[in-house]
Amino acid sequence: xxxxxxxxxxxxxxxxxxxxxxxxxxxxxxxxxxxxxxxxxxxxxxxxxxxxxxxxxxxxxxxxxxxxxxxxxxxxxxxxxxxxxxxxxxxxxxxxxxxxxxxxxxxxxxxxxxxxxxxxxxxxxxxxxxxxxxxxxxxxxxxxxxxxxxxxxxxxxxxxxxxxxxxxxxxxxxxxxxxxxxxxxxxxx
Length: 189
What we know:
By secondary structure, the protein is an alpha+beta fold. Helix content is 63%, strand content 23%.
């Protein structure tokens, strides 16, 4: 009986293993918490970095949007200026044209034809006139058709003026298109 050990060595070993297990478990828990905290900090840092980049890009996009808006307004102003310049050039170019048109109207009007009303809309001239004979009206239409300053003379209506049973004249309306032969010679429409 000399080798019998009565000490509670199994319980001490169990307690030692259990405290070792708790220590290792606590170490793993601390290590896991540290890794989790590090991972969270890394992700948060990346999110902050990306948010900073996004805010920078949004600022640049707003700057570019304002520049694009400014460019669009400048283009609209440019188009308006070009339209104004074209109108002014058109008016400057048409100024002598009116003189030619009136001169050609005088030359094309035969004796016995009197104008009552003359209106011009764009390139269309509308004439309300009175003639003493139908031959004068035919001559007037023929003269307008042969003129290089007019095109497509069209009689819109004619009405006889009577004094009792006798016809003393004719009122008529016609429409004619104005043409610029100088522009046609230069190749402009």
